[in-house]
Amino acid sequence: MKLSYLIVVLSLTFLSTACSNWIYRIDIPQGNFLDEQDVKKLRIGMTKEQVEFVLGRPILKDAFDNDTWYYYYEMKRGMEKRGEDFEKNLVINFVDNKLDTVESDFELSEDFNTPLEQ
């Protein structure tokens, strides 16, 4: 009796773990989704308002340094077959309310160092 009970429990455990890929798990995006094309629109000397128009509001403005903005995006995949988890970072520094430097996982435009015509 105990042996047959043990066999049933073990086979149910094995079958339930074998079917774990049948369970749908959602992807969890968090942060600011930035498109590569939008990041390539950035130019040195842009105002804060222009940067916010192009990229949207930052996820974090440094409380101690109002001239540093942080954009962060993270995607946690629910299922491995939809791809790998990834994250993207973008840190923008302003000097005198003008875009000065960008530290990014994105590739900047070749024209980044060319200011917009005023």
From TrEMBL:
Keyword line: Cell outer membrane, Lipoprotein, Membrane, Palmitate, Signal, Viral envelope protein, Virion
Source domain of life: Bacteria
Single GO molecular function: protein-macromolecule adaptor activity
InterPro entries reported for this sequence: BamE, BamE-like, BamE_dom
GO biological process: Gram-negative-bacterium-type cell outer membrane assembly; protein insertion into membrane
Annotated compartments: Cell outer membrane
Gene Ontology CC: Bam protein complex
Membrane topology value: Lipid-anchor
Residues annotated as domain Outer membrane protein assembly factor BamE: 31-102
Similarity comment text for this entry: Belongs to the BamE family.
Subunit comment: Part of the Bam complex.
Function: Part of the outer membrane protein assembly complex, which is involved in assembly and insertion of beta-barrel proteins into the outer membrane.
Name assigned to this protein: Outer membrane protein assembly factor BamE
Organism: Alteromonas lipolytica
